[in-house]
C-alpha cells in the first residue's frame, strides 16, 4: 500500500514541479530558471542522500566519465518542459511530453540502443501510447466552451495559496 | 494569428523534445544508479547539470539572479521536489514493481496537472472543461492503464 502511495505522490510532485518551474520562468527567464532548478535539485539530492547514506554518498567506485556528462541531459529536460508548458498550457504540454517519452522508450527498447537488451514491440503498449495520443487530440481539438479567454484572478490567487 | 501558430508549433516541438530527453535521462540514470547508487547518481547528474546550465547562462548572458527576488519562494523549490520524487519512485518500485509505479506516476501527474489547469491554480490560465476535455482525459488515462497491463 505504501508503494502505491509513494508512486502517486511522485506523480503529484512531478506535476507541481512543472508548474512551479513555469512560474519561475515567467519572472526570471529560461536560463536563470534552468540554473536555479538544477541547483536546487542538486542541493536537495545532496541533503537527502546524506541523510540516507551518510558519508557513503561520496563513494563513487564504479564511476565512469560519461556519468558526469549525462547530467547535461537535465538542461534539455528543464528548458524544453518549461517552454512547452509556457506555450501550450500544462495539460497539453505534459500529456504530449508523456506520449513522446513513451514513444521514444518503445523505439529505444525495440532498437536495443545503448547496449540495452532488445525488447520486442508489445501490441498492448503500442495501443496504450496510441490511446494516450488520441486522448491528447480529443482534449485539445474538442469543442471549447465558455471560459477559454476568461482568466479569473481570484481563482488563480486561491490556487497559489494551496501551494 | 500566424504568430500564435508559431508559438504553438514551438511549444509542441519543445514538449516532444522534453519527452525524448526524459527517456534518455531515465535510461542513463538507471545505468548510473546501478553503478554508483541512486542518490550518488541524482546528486552527481544534477551537479553537472547545474554547472552546465550556469556556464550556458553566463555565456548567453541570460543569468539574472535578481529577477528571482520577484518569484514566490514556494515556486523556487520546484527543483528540490526532484529529490522527493526520486525517493518516492525508488521506494515504490521496490515495493510494487516498475510497471505499476510508472503507470501510477503518469496518472498522478496527468490528473493533478489537469485539475490545476481546470481550476486555474498556480497561475495557470483556466481551460474550459467540456465533454471533449473529459473524454480526452479519460482516453489518456485509459492509455496509461493499457501501458500498465502491456
From TrEMBL, chain A:
Classification via InterPro entries: YdcZ
Organism whose genome encodes this protein: Paenibacillus pasadenensis
Pfam families xrefs: DMT_YdcZ
GO CC list: plasma membrane
Residue intervals passing through the bilayer: 6-24, 36-60, 66-85, 92-114, 126-143
Name of the molecule in the record: Conserved membrane protein
Keyword Transmembrane: yes
Superkingdom, natural source: Bacteria
Keywords (A to Z) from UniProt: Membrane, Transmembrane, Transmembrane helix
Key word Metal-binding present: no
